[in-house]
Write a structure and sequence with these properties.
By secondary structure, the chain is an alpha/beta fold. Bound molecules: adenosine-5'-diphosphate and magnesium ion (2 copies).
Length: 924
């Protein structure tokens, strides 16, 4: 039989291109490498057939056909239909059945399948080819009338909903009504006669909704179904999903036409879904669910609660053993955990789908590490198997156990996707979006979810459903987008009309807007907002092992942005190799310091003028001397405090570099708000204190139209040099102190916002004079590197000149992005920017992911800087330093390190390794 299949290259076809690839009888025209053309499902079916596994014969119509269908204005390409007919002939030969043959009918499923799995995004039609005549044949052949009518009602229901756009509820209603009338609970309790009645009702519904009769010609059914699958590619759900997952819209979907096998032929039949390892924990054990006497979507839709796959071992031991063997074979073949769909027809097992399994963060890490230990994959592959977002998730909070003890549990469901989530209950996806736009955190509560709920799931903190198992839509999607999810909470009674729910057993109720806490790791839903605790990196040996491998392959170092010793220590625990940005001004804001800083700022300008006058040899008057005295006293206090801060940081980072940035923000940021101070003084009238008046005058005098472009960064240091001097002394004296105490402090001093080399040269001169003074006073040599941020476009464009004055560059990509786009970040992100992204005016938020033009400026700066100083040290300290995509761009630009906030350090270690592997791969 197999030799009826023509070899791939010379299959006859009438269309201009070859659109069809068939499989059956142990042979397949396609294979796993053809995912682009065949989609994931088609490629998997071909590959499984080739591997000798039991797959019902069928064929794939390629993604190219889908694209050509749209290109021709929703017309099948010329000749394609003839080729479909040929392929159907082949399946007929393969199965010995006839499509539309009343005596021995061939039935098929028509299944979508894109290159990337889009769970539940496009629907499958089962039992296609049925009509009154073929139904009779089916019943005659199987001797099972009930089965025949069940298949037929399912077909009308699915085809009606998916292909003919009849609202699914109408069928559901009729089905529920029938069960009610018969006093039964399960679909399986309906008799053949009941189902026959139902078919009549269903057909009437179709006529009522569409104004036409349900199509009885199998070929017309096939034609309509193929086109419906093509059209579903541009359906709203599919589009939304692709947008959220950054999947291109021009890939198209393939269509798979597959010989039906029947899981609903009795108790020796069934259908199921299983993973070769537990997708929640990664444990190496078959995980999944199955139902006897059921078809297709029954398991996924949670129509009946399905038993765990392990139960199959007792119910159908031989089939179970075979399935286990196949699972292992496929896992070895694909060298990854597989997600399998199968059907058992009268004791015979058929494989209907295989694909790489979606998994939780914990499972991803465990599986990757285990598979290296098992010798299945290499360390490099393991690094590629874990997504940076997974690492992020593993460091996320869980609920405080003591709070959980006291908490009121509403219900317990299935732990479908781990993590702790707290939010206010909402009951539909649109509400979720609306509430989140208002700044609320929400938990989406649903009876079950469908692809239409995706937009709500994407914005919710977590999801809970009353129905559906571990492989239900809610569970699969939640795991994939990394949201905590509790599924199948059978005791949860949800009422959409009143937007309220209650636990049937506990009696606890809650309504829209009430706070609830959901634990996707345990399956619990609690009333109220529970406090959370940090995830402990120390307790995750698999993750540490994986990141250790990442450290072996990455080229770039990972540093951190930390302003306090405690942050530095935490980052070091996470594997940070230095501090790339220590912002001194954060130290200015704490407690008593702010008052000291304000005291200095009040007289900063006057004191600086007076000092200049004195330096020019002029005599100062009493007022001037007083101002200078006040200023110096405040600065001296600050110097002592800052030196203490720096000592703490040098100690925490002993032996690792610490880049300290001198004062950066405009001074008004340390002062009260102008309007508030004005109100205060005006209200007090004559009673206003001298101090408040003085403060008001200072705030007014420092007011700028555009502070982000005003007196800040190196400009401020040049206007009020004492800031530079005091900070230099504090840093270097701290270094001396820590060194004398036996430590190994490595200091790097960084100047922000340089646009012209002269700014840097002048600051450097100031700083070096001060450093000499420190050396003389201490009687020891100080050791530090001097560098600059590159965050002004002019700085990037003149990096060759700037490099003459700098030992290192650190890209401040927040400012560089602001200034390259000409956006003020705070105004843009609070305003038009998100709309821009939504409307696709910008492809993404450039403050989250490095824009290519900004990266281009960085590249110029790197090349120019290195042309002056080949060993110039180059890093990034903008927030992009913790974003995986941006990290990949930094790798390509050739930076030496990325620096990010402490909790992003583990993510960055993995992302940097992945970037190094990708670049190495590209350069091969
Ligand atoms: P999805 O992409 O949503 O997983 P599938 O095309 O895999 O959709 O179809 C869903 C389910 O329908 C399958 O898991 C399987 O149970 C059932 N199914 C599909 N094709 C057949 C077939 N030829 N015979 C029996 N069941 C089928
Ligand atoms: Mg499937
Ligand atoms: Mg900056």
């Amino acid at each position: 039989m197999a030799d009826t299949l023509a070899p791939a290259e010379d299959r006859r076809h009438r269309a201009a291109k070859r659109y069809i690839y068939a499989w059956g009888g142990g042979h397949a025209e396609g294979d796993a490498s053809m995912r682009d053309q065949l989609g994931g499902k088609g490629a998997g079916l071909a590959e499984m057939t080739k591997a000798g596994l039991p797959v019902p014969p069928g064929f794939t119509i390629t993604t190219a056909a889908c694209n050509d269908y749209f290109a021709a204005g929703e017309q099948l390409p010329d000749g394609l239909w003839d080729d479909v007919l040929d392929a159907v002939r082949e399946v007929e030969r393969e199965t010995g059945k006839g499509f539309g043959d009343a005596a021995n009918p061939l039935l098929v499923s028509v299944r979508s399948g894109a290159k990337f799995s889009m769970p539940g995004m496009m629907d499958t039609v089962l039992n296609l080819g049925l009509n009154e005549q073929t139904l009779e044949g089916l019943v005659g052949l199987t001797g099972n009338e009930r089965f025949g009518w069940d298949a037929y009602r399912r077909f009308i229901q699915m085809f009606g909903r998916i292909v003919m756009d009849v609202p699914g509820e109408r069928f559901d209603h009729a089905l529920e009504g029938k069960k009610h009338a018969r006093g039964v609970k399960q679909d399986t309790d309906l008799s053949a006669a009941d189902l026959r009645d139902l078919v009549a009702e269903f057909r009437a519904i179709v006529r009522d909704e569409t104004g036409r009769d349900f199509p009885t010609d199998p070929y017309e059914q096939l034609d309509l179904a193929i086109k419906a699958v093509f059209r579903s590619w541009f359906g709203k759900r599919a589009r939304d999903y692709r947008n959220s997952q950054k999947i291109a819209h021009d890939l198209g979907t393939a269509v798979n036409v597959v010989t039906m096998v029947f899981g609903n032929m009795g108790d020796d039949s069934g259908t199921g879904v299983a993973f070769t390892r537990d997708p929640n924990t990664g444990e190496k054990t078959l995980f999944g669910e199955y139902l006897t006497n059921a078809q297709g979507e029954d398991v996924v839709a949670g129509i009946r609660t399905a038993p765990k796959i392990a139960q199959m071992a007792t119910e159908m031991p031989e089939v179970y053993a075979e399935f286990q063997r196949i699972g292992q074979q496929l896992e070895r073949h694909y060298r990854d955990v597989q997600d399998l769909e199968f059907t058992i027809e009268r004791g015979r097992l058929y494989m209907l789908q295989t694909r790489s399994a979606k998994r939780t963060a914990a499972a991803a890490v465990k599986i990757a590490v285990d598979m290296v230990d098992e010798g299945v994959i290499t360390k490099e592959e393991a690094i590629g198997r874990v997504e940076p977002a997974h690492v992020d998730q593993l460091l996320r909070a869980t609920f405080d156990p003591s709070a959980v003890e006291q908490a009121q549990r509403i219900v317990k469901g299935l732990n479908a996707s781990p993590g702790a989530a707290v939010g206010r209950a909402v009951f539909d996806a649109d509400d979720a979006v609306e509430w989140v736009e208002r700044g609320e955190k929400v938990i989406l509560v649903r009876i079950e979810t469908s692809p239409d709920d995706f937009h709500g799931m994407a914005v919710a903190e977590g999801i809970i459903t009353a129905r559906g198992g571990a492989t239900s839509h809610a569970a699969v999607v939640a795991r994939q987008i990394g949201k905590p999810c509790v599924a199948g909470s059978a005791d949860l009674v949800v009422d959409y009309t009143s937007k309220a729910a209650h636990g049937a057993v506990t009696g606890i109720d809650f309504k829209q807007g009430d706070w609830v806490s959901l634990d996707g790791s345990t399956g619990d839903l609690y009333l109220g907002a529970l406090p959370t605790v940090e995830a402990r990196f120390e307790d995750q040996p698999d993750l540490q092992k994986l990141l250790g491998w990442a450290d072996e392959v990455r080229r770039m170092q990972v540093w951190t942005n930390a302003d306090k010793p405690s942050e530095a220590a935490q980052a070091r625990g996470y594997g940070a190799q230095g501090i790339g940005l220590c912002r001194t001004e954060h130290m200015f804001r704490e407690g008593e310091r702010l008052d000291i800083v304000r005291g200095a700022i009040l007289v900063a300008n006057a004191a600086t003028r007076a000092k200049a006058k004195a330096a020019a040899g002029a005599e100062l008057d009493a007022d001037e001397r007083e101002v200078v005295g006040r200023f110096d006293a405040a600065m001296a206090q600050l110097e002592v405090l800052q030196q203490g801060d720096f000592e703490g940081i040098f100690e925490a980072m002993d032996g690792l570099p610490v880049v300290v940035r001198l004062i950066d923000p405009p001074l008004h940021e340390f002062l009260p708000n102008l309007e508030e101070q004005l109100v205060k003084v005006t209200k007090a009238g004559d009673a206003a204190s001298e101090e408040d008046r003085e403060l008001l005058a200072t705030i007014k005098s420092m007011h700028e139209q555009n502070p982000m472009l005003g007196l800040r960064g190196c400009r401020l240091g040049l206007m009020i040099p004492d800031f530079v001097k005091v900070q230099t002394r504090a840093i270097l004296n701290a270094q001396i102190a820590v060194k004398q105490a036996g430590g190994n402090p490595i200091a790097k001093i960084m100047i922000p916002l340089v646009g012209h080399v002269n700014e840097l040269a002048a600051t450097r001169a100031l700083l070096e004079t001060e450093a000499k003074a420190v050396e003389e006073k201490a009687g020891v040599m100080v050791d530090y590197k001097f560098g600059t941020m590159i965050e002004v476009p002019r700085g990037a464009l003149t990096a060759d000149e700037i490099a003459r004055e700098a030992d290192f560059f650190s890209f401040g990509t927040n400012d560089l992005t602001q200034m390259t786009f000409g956006y003020s970040r705070d105004d843009a992100e609070g305003g038009f920017l998100l709309k821009y992204v939504e409307d696709k005016i910008l492809p993404f938020n450039p403050f989250q992911t490095l824009d290519d033009a900004v990266a281009g400026l960085m590249r110029i700066a790197v090349e120019k800087g290195r042309s002056t100083k080949p060993d110039l040290e180059l890093g990034i300290c903008g927030e992009h330093g913790g974003d995986p995509e941006s990290i990949a761009k930094c790798e390509r630009i050739g930076l030496d390190y990325v620096s990010c906030s402490p909790f992003r350090v583990p993510v960055a270690r993995l992302a940097a390794a992945q970037a190094a592997l990708t670049v190495a791969d590209r350069d091969k």
